[in-house]
Amino acid sequence: MNDYVIRVLASPSDIDPQAWNALLAAQAEPSPFMRHEYLAAMHDSGSASPERGWTPQFVTLWRGQVLEAACALYLKDHSYGEYVFDWAWANAYEQHGLAYYPKAVVAAPFTPVPGARLLARDEQSRTLLVQGLVAVCKEQELSSLHLLFGADADIAACTEAGLMLRHTVQFHWTNVAPALGTDVSSLPPEGARFALGRPGGETGYADFDAFLASLSHDKRKKIRQERRKVAEAGVSFRWSRGTDISKADWDFFYRCYERTYREHGNPPYLTRDFFQRMADTLPEAWLLFVAERDGRPIATSLIALSADEAHPLVAYGRYWGALERVDCLHFEACYYQPTAWCIAHGAARFEGGAQGEHKMARALMPVRTTSAHWLAHPSFADAVERFLEREGAGIENYLDHLGERSPFKAA
């Protein structure tokens, strides 16, 4: 292994975009949020920057002049924008007079979407990259390493390296019609986010009505009632994709996005410049829904799309905001309009994001997601491992409980 070299780079701009994206495209579970354009925009726009507590130290593995593996590593002096909550761990360190920050995080900033985090040519390179990550953390005397929302191959490599696993639950809709013989409600959560969605020549739902027909009577009736309220309020929708999203629409979207954060008492994570960079460098990854009433835009919902034609089309619910309050508008903008679009355009999956049991009533089913963690302090590592065992059992019970509440018709 002496011909492999680890190099730590201080900025995404220090990595060739084509080489990075080629590694990403070779992964079984790529994500648009690991594209070089996305990460560079996070940094260059000041959204994820050292000034905001995100110091990039991208770890790369080289064999001669060939980039064999790479990952987006950030040094963090807080735990905001991660969505795998470790505040209690940080507090425990502080109570014992120890420094938890800075810590190391392998993630897409502010983006709790599962996908490849360790971009590698093969499993050997992935294993060496994990070992290199731990070595970097030890060398810099960091408290811990956290790989968030990893793909199956990432989690396997982390497990082999001795990292501890932590599970959370998300809610995803899949374009598999039960009429084709697939009992969606019985599919296991483990790995389902990548296994589901139009496999092996199967056909998805013919239209939104066919999707509704797969649901129980109560759920179907509820969705129709919610959609009717929005329509009767005089609200209609239009959508734009990629370069068809105008600057005026991007500006209006950001007004809505910013207002949503301000209403919760927080400044927005992402700057307007970030979204402009996305429009300029990665337009194909974005789908925008605009709600209008009396000829005026009143709300938006921004959806990300997988930008890799070699893999099934996947939609990711990301951001929404409204300037006027309309009953059930959030459900229409964030679930029903995207679901209808996914059906019409043959998308395999719509990932509704973290948290929110209410999503199950809209047929977004619970899916287990996994992160991996390494703590330098042996005693704290032992304590966290015991905690994760208890928490993991609770997650399993929670998934079992959710599984009893399927919105689909009984088989």
Q: Can you walk through the features of this model?
A:
The protein has helices at residues 17-25, 36-44, 87-95, 123-139, 152-160, 192-195, 208-213, 217-232, 247-263, 272-281, 329-344, 378-403; strands spanning 4-9, 54-56, 58-63, 66-71, 73-76, 103-106, 119-120, 144-147, 164-174, 235-241, 286-293, 296-305, 314-322, 349-354, 365-375. It has 411 residues and is of the alpha+beta class. The relative contact order is 0.15. The strands form 2 sheets. An 11-stranded mixed sheet has the order 2-5-6-8-15-9-14-13-12-11-10. Strands 1-3-4-7 form a 4-stranded antiparallel sheet, sandwiched between helices. Helix 2 runs antiparallel to helix 10 (272-281), helix 4 packs across helix 5 and helix 9 (247-263) packs antiparallel against helix 10. It starts with a strand and ends in an 8-residue tail after the last helix. It contains 12 helices and 15 strands. The chain has 2 domains: 4-162, Aminopeptidase, CATH 3.40.630; 171-366, Gcn5-related N-acetyltransferase (GNAT) (Aminopeptidase). Helix content is 36%, strand content 24%. A hairpin with a 2-residue loop joins strand 3 (58-63) and strand 4 (66-71). It is globular. It comes from Acidovorax cavernicola. Pfam families: FemAB_like.
CATH topology of the largest domain: Aminopeptidase
Described by the principal axes of the CA atoms, the overall outline is globular
Q: Kindly name the structural category.
A: alpha+beta
Give the strand tally. 15
Helix content: 25-40%
Mean pLDDT: 92
Terminal Cα span: 54 Å
Q: Could you describe the largest sheet, including whether it forms a barrel? A: 11 strands, mixed
The low-pLDDT segments are 179-201
Number of distinct helices: 12
Question: What is the second-level CATH architecture of the largest domain?
Answer: 3-Layer(aba) Sandwich
| Proportion of beta-strand residues | 15-25%
Q: What order do the strands of the largest sheet run in, or round the barrel if closed?
A: 2-5-6-8-15-9-14-13-12-11-10
Radius of gyration: 22 Å
